[in-house]
Every structure is written in structure tokens, then in C-alpha cells.
Amino acid sequence: MKTKIVGLFVCMLLITTILPITVIAGDEQNPEIQDTPEDDVFPYLDVISAWFFEKSDEPGYLFTSLKLTEITGYRFKQHLTIHWDHNGIECAAGLFIGYGKPWFAFDAGYGHGWWFQEHYVNISGEYNLSTGIFTCKIPKEVINNPKQGDVLTNTSAQAFQRFGFIGRLGFDRIFLPSLIYSIFKKSILDIAPDTGYGKDYIIQY
Fold it and tell me: What is the domain range of residue 143?
């Protein structure tokens, strides 16, 4: 009987120590952010999921991945971003398409507001046209220096199309999306999840 009790205790101990490790790092099968399939969003802006992860051999970086129905460079300017809060500060990372040289660019940083309150820099990343997944490799120093054990909250993803100079001709950000939707019955904005936020992420290294 004692052997069974000891065995049960050991199993419970293993579960309580291993379980937190398995839920603090996301992947494509267990993403922090998930979205429901949507037929009224253009495929190249349709968010499927997004997740955070780290690598033990590169502890100075946070990685974010976002999966879309498809990735394409043959559109107007696109913002494909992942957002979160760290110690009350808004942070984000993403892929920006259609801004010239380079045509595909990755940025990350923190802050939101007037001049000098935003701190965003160019980072490295990669994208896969066949899977619709892109990944940002973010130096932690450019996203408010999260430390081991810190929690990233209010996670979300956003994909939208931007028209730049067209807006200066009198077409505001409300008019253009409405016009496009009335013609194509497709939205140029997708936010994931549909309501609220995704799961928190705990910094591991």
C-alpha cells in the first residue's frame, strides 16, 4: 500500500512540475492566439493562429509566429502583427509587406502614442509562402526587456491592408474598407481572437 501511495505521489509531483512547462510555450498545435475560420476576409489577411516561443540556445530572443491562410506580396501595403503587454507597456512585432526596399520587412518594439513614445526597430524574420507562416526573431532588449518569469498578457494578432497615399485624397480608413466590402464582400481587416485576448505567455529564459 505504501508503495502505491509513494508511486501516486511521485506521479502527481511529475505532473505538477512538467505541466507548467508545457503550457508556457506555444507552437502551431497549441497556439496562444486562435481565430475562427472566416469567409468574409481576404485570404492573405485571414489570421488562423499565432504563438510565442523561445530557444534555450538563444535566450536573448523571443520568437513569434503568425499563420495566415496565405502570404502574398502582390497586394497593397499589409500589416501583419502580433501584440501583447509587458508590465503595462504595449509591445508588437510583425511583417510589413509592400513598402519598397525591402518589399518584405520585419519590425518589433514597444510603446504607443505620440512622438518618442514609440520604440520600434527592424529585426530579422522569415516567411513561408507555402504554409502561410511567418516568424519574427526579436531581441528582448527592443521589447521592454522581459525577464525569465515575466508574463506577456493581452495577446492578440491583427492583419490589415493600408492604402497610404490614397488616404490623402480624401478616402479615410472607414470609407475605403466599407467600399471594398460592399464590392467584394470581403474585409481587409482581421483581428484574432474575435473577442477578448489570447492566452498569456510566460518568459522562459
Answer: 2-202
